[in-house]
Amino acid sequence: MISSHTFRGLWAYRGFVLGSVKREFESKYSNAILGAAWSLLSPLAMIAVYTVIFAEVMRSKLPGSDNTFAYSIYLCAGILTWGLFAEIIARSQTMFIEQANLIKKISFPRISLPLIVVLNALLNFGIIFALFTAFLAISGNFPGMAFVAIVPVLALQVLFAIGLGMIIGVLNVFFRDVGQFFSIFIQFWFWFTPIVYPASILPETIRGLLVWNPMASIIGAYQTILVNGRAPDWNSLVLPLVLAVLMCVFALRLFRKRSGEMVDEL
């Protein structure tokens, strides 16, 4: 998928990539009194709200589970991981446009821009998810060895997100309506994915359509691990894996074919 020449280029510019990630993270909190502490306070507040409101106030229960925190964990597992996907997509669709001046003036491997997007998103996600993991451990809901299964699921999700994001990002340079359309489409996609509701409450005809929603399988895998403490059904992730690989291959070919034209268009 990625040639050795591309890998060498990325390695040669690793300082540029890591420096860009560091600068973006610092600039996010540069004018805030509490600085980077907000990266902890914001997710802590979200986890606390979901836990208190749904587990204690509304007494929301997850069908088939007697655990007080089951629905809160189910909700956090879906929303936090969907947030990673949405952030990669949102940043990818404008990454070439936002870096137009850099692309025009400096010679560097432009494939590093998607890598910067992914690393920034993973940094933000890592902070939030670490706090969520701490909550699971403190509340006695840590899934045990099944937690390791998150690694391949996360890798699959990132591969799927960046493949789709790069396609949208390249197309958005030439057709700005693409980004606008997808910003609306992803909202519908969120609600068609069992995140705030369990798939079991859907009518059987609609539930059958979830098979064709790759994010339903990916989010469902996280929820199985974190709520039920067991490994996901790996067969359900075959379709998302195939789509992720195909999209990454297509995205790289599209990028290589149109990278020269993008400079003129920007």
Would you report the number of β strands? 0
Element order, helices and strands?
Answer: HHHHHHHHHHHH
Number of helices: 12
Helical content band:
over 70%
User: Averaging pLDDT over every residue, what do you get?
Assistant: 84
Based on the structure, what is the oligomeric state of the protein chains? single chain
Radius of gyration: 20 Å
What would you call the shape? globular
Low-confidence stretches are: none
Tell me the span between the first and last alpha carbons.
26 Å
Strand-residue proportion: under 5%
Sheet of most strands: none
What class do helices, strands and sheet pairing give? mainly alpha
Protein name: Transport permease protein
Family: Belongs to the ABC-2 integral membrane protein family.
Pfam families: ABC2_membrane (PF01061)
Organism: Massilia agrisoli
Verbal overview:
The chain has 266 residues and is mainly α. It is 73% helix and 0% strand. The longest helix is centred in the C-terminal third of the chain and has 28 residues, at 238-265. The radius of gyration is 20 Å and the shape is globular. The chain starts with a helix and ends with a helix. This is Transport permease protein. Pfam families: ABC2_membrane. The chain crosses the membrane at residues 32-57, 69-90, 111-138, 144-174, 181-202, 237-255. Residues 34-258 form the ABC transmembrane type-2 domain.
